[in-house]
Amino acid sequence: MNAHRFFDDEKERRTWQNPKAILTQIGLKHSFTFVDVGCGYGFSALPAAKLVGKDGKVYGLDSNDEAIRKLKEKAAEKGVDNLYLKVGKAEENILCEACADIAFLGIVLHDFNDPIQVLKNSKRMLKPTGKLVKRAQPIFVDVTNTKEFRMENHGEDTSSVLWFRRGWKSYC
Fold first, then answer.
1. Which of 3, 70, 92, 171 is the most exposed place for a label (fewest CB within 10 A)?
2. Quick one: CA torsion of 151, 122, 143, 111, rounded to 10 degrees?
């Protein structure tokens, strides 16, 4: 995954995105398990950890070891202890099996070498009722002849929620 130059500049990024509002809008709640695929410096992961509270968990995965290191430092400074981070490629890692209420890809899908594999791995982390959420860029998935897939647009912020059934046998 390629690092974005502005992802560690939270002040600038917050002028065009509000992570707490986005996370609330996608349905993140107290005690949920949230997976942030391509978490970077924690723009979404840290607010998610606060929203899910001590009874919830936030998993973060990023290939940028510097970003994960800085995110660990920020979490320690803020007393966040429900954040579980790993350095690695999203195409090669599954942080947990069927554990997540929400798997989140925030403006990162286009950065992966194999976005379909990233979606497959993200799906494996979801509970049967979990949501896979991506932001900004379109996803091209063949959903011909299936009623097991639904995509919802969440308005002007360009979030989409991808819903899957556990046994779906297509790209994802």
1. 92
2. 90
Confirm whether 109 is domain-assigned: yes
Tokens 């490629």 belong to residue: 89
Q: Look at residue 1 and tell me if it is in a domain.
A: no
Residue 113 inside a domain? The answer is yes
Q: Is 123 exposed, middle or buried (0-12, 13-18, 19+ CB in 10 A)?
A: buried
Q: What is the CATH number of the domain that holds 52?
A: 3.40.50.150
The answer to whether residue 39 sits within a structural domain is yes
Task: Please write the tens of the pLDDT for every residue from 119-156.
Answer: 999 999 999 999 998 875 334 444 444 444 444 444 44
pLDDT in tens, 60-117: 999 999 999 999 999 999 999 999 999 999 999 999 999 999 999 988 887 899 999 9
Q: Is 116 exposed, middle or buried (0-12, 13-18, 19+ CB in 10 A)?
A: middle
pTM, to two decimals: 0.75
Pair 98, 127: CB distance under 8 Å: yes
Question: Domains in the chain: how many in total?
Answer: 1
Q: Supply the range of the domain harboring residue 23.
A: 10-164
What is the residue type of 75?
Answer: A
